[in-house]
Amino acid sequence: MGAAGALRIFLCSCWLLLCTGLAHAQVTHLVRADVMVTPPSGYQPPLSSFDPASLAGPWREVALPDKFDQGTPERSAGGPLKPGAMATTWYRISLAGVAAAPGPVALHLLRWQAAGQLAVYGDGQLLYRSQGSPAWNHFRHPALVIPLRETAEAPLPKTLLVRLDTFPGAAGAITSLYAGPEREIYARYAGREWLEYQLPFMMSAAFLAVGLFSFGVWLVRRREPIYFLVFVIAVCTVVRRWHIYAGLEQLTISDQWFGWLTYNALNWQIVALQYFARLLHGRDHRWFNRITVGFAGLMTLATLPLSALQPGLVLVKPLLYVVPILLGAVMTVRNMWDGWQSRSYEARLLGGWMVVSLSFGTYDWFKVKYQFNIEGFYLTPYAAMVMFVVITYILFRRYVNAVAETERSKETLEVRLRQREQELAESYEKLREVEKARTLSMERQRMMQDMHDVLGLSLIGALRMVERGRLDEREVAQILSSCIDDLKLAIDSLEPVDADLLLLLATLRFRLGPRLEAAGIRLAWKVETVPALPWLDPRHALHILRILQEAFANIIKHTSATEIAVSTAVTHDGVSVAVEDNGPGFSLEQGLAQGGKGLRNQMRRAEAIGARIEWQPSPGGTRMVLQLPLVQRMLAAPA
């Protein structure tokens, strides 16, 4: 049966279902008429009244729907035609079998199809006349609802006369008619009108909206031409079916330009579909693409309505559709094969629609040529509906796939990020171990250097002096006690002080207090709370301990002081630690000139931690002040 036949049965079934409720109504189906044809002559507009008796005949009976072919003897011209000459076909239909129903009565003409004009008379009175031009009426193929009786007391016409004026040599057709109560007739008309015109119109409007949306997306994402092609396809589809959505009145645009627009919209729709399909299956055939573009451009120029040879173009327009149908057939086969080769689901889906659309278009072409029953539905509007569904589904799939791809990329990125974080954590752990080992190594080196420079030199010096007999037991005991203090201070410097200078000074007091007491020196502890020093670590702590230890040692060895005062204070840029004795005092320049290594070591250590050290004379002795910064600005040198 084919897709066209199946869709036709489906639409007819829907229409019958809509009309099922009318089965009980007194609706008469008029399927017989008498027909006569008058030779071509100058066209005379229909009059408001007409005498049926003036049509002498001859009449012949026909079954409705009825079609007349081109070139029949009655319609052919016997000689030169006058401008605007038209042949007239008269249909006489008896309404005697129409049941007399109370209220308004109407007539439903399913369709009349011709390049011409239509007028309907009831008992000689004009009931309806077409408003559009002959060419426009040929585009539209309208259905009609005509009142036969508008009030209950008005008489019902006994005879209908349908006047159909057409161009000489042109074909035409008229369907059967339905007569009955106006309400039932209008319901029957509305159901068919909705299926045949309103439903395709709504789908086309939705397609155009999707096309405009796609155009907006393309303006933002120029790298994706598929959205621009959807816009072109949507616009061409709407223009191509323009006559389906328009009313019965003629448009302001001329028939010639209207025909040019609708015909070439189909050609450029084929071009856009070809490039759309190429984006789906990814197989480029430049020669075929150029042929489609060249054909569309050629036909656009060749059919320009620049002359007054109308209605000639209207009469040959069905023949013009042969070429796009053939080109569409080649495009369909080409893209079906490419979709199969590329294994693209979307390309195969579009190819399947092309098969359906080609079948529908071929069916409608034969229908325009009066080869099929004109009472049936035209199918190309439904092909456009299916195309809208297919293209929207393709865009939907691409959107869903893009979202899924984004989610997969996000998941992949999260996995990679976790892996990277794990790698960084492992690298950081290794760096911590390396740094810990490096710190331990540096601390060992610092301790070894400090023990070598201080403790080692003191022991070696004491050993040589003992060997030479220059030291007695008391002096040896003092040297050993000093070495033990040095060792304890070095060990104490390894303890964490948490940037607390007071804790470091308390450790110094604990270690050196007994030695000062043994030397007969009283320690005055005047330490006050000071800010924390963030830079104070074991390496810097040892420098401070050594500086203060050297100060105490110098006081014990070189002065006769009986009291040492240790105090702290907060300055404008740091913290100060002062050590003051009540000895006789000394000259810094003189001490340095005599080769005082202790003083130089103190200065070197203060410089290593970014501090300053000063010796100031006091009324009762000497005052040493160590200025420590809150923020260290210098790198400490090795101890």
UniProtKB/TrEMBL annotation:
<feature type="transmembrane region" description="Helical">
    <location>
        <begin position="319"/>
        <end position="337"/>
    </location>
</feature>
<protein>
    <submittedName>
        <fullName>Sensor histidine kinase</fullName>
    </submittedName>
</protein>
<keyword id="KW-0812">Transmembrane</keyword>
<dbReference type="InterPro" id="IPR050482">
    <property type="entry name" value="Sensor_HK_TwoCompSys"/>
</dbReference>
<feature type="transmembrane region" description="Helical">
    <location>
        <begin position="288"/>
        <end position="307"/>
    </location>
</feature>
<keyword id="KW-0808">Transferase</keyword>
<feature type="signal peptide">
    <location>
        <begin position="1"/>
        <end position="25"/>
    </location>
</feature>
<keyword id="KW-1133">Transmembrane helix</keyword>
<keyword id="KW-0175">Coiled coil</keyword>
<feature type="transmembrane region" description="Helical">
    <location>
        <begin position="199"/>
        <end position="219"/>
    </location>
</feature>
<keyword id="KW-0902">Two-component regulatory system</keyword>
<dbReference type="InterPro" id="IPR003594">
    <property type="entry name" value="HATPase_dom"/>
</dbReference>
<feature type="transmembrane region" description="Helical">
    <location>
        <begin position="378"/>
        <end position="396"/>
    </location>
</feature>
<feature type="coiled-coil region">
    <location>
        <begin position="403"/>
        <end position="437"/>
    </location>
</feature>
<feature type="transmembrane region" description="Helical">
    <location>
        <begin position="349"/>
        <end position="366"/>
    </location>
</feature>
<dbReference type="GO" id="GO:0016301">
    <property type="term" value="F:kinase activity"/>
</dbReference>
<keyword id="KW-0732">Signal</keyword>
<keyword id="KW-0418">Kinase</keyword>
<dbReference type="Pfam" id="PF02518">
    <property type="entry name" value="HATPase_c"/>
</dbReference>
<feature type="transmembrane region" description="Helical">
    <location>
        <begin position="226"/>
        <end position="245"/>
    </location>
</feature>
<keyword id="KW-0472">Membrane</keyword>
<feature type="domain" description="Histidine kinase/HSP90-like ATPase">
    <location>
        <begin position="539"/>
        <end position="632"/>
    </location>
</feature>
<dbReference type="InterPro" id="IPR036890">
    <property type="entry name" value="HATPase_C_sf"/>
</dbReference>
<feature type="transmembrane region" description="Helical">
    <location>
        <begin position="257"/>
        <end position="276"/>
    </location>
</feature>
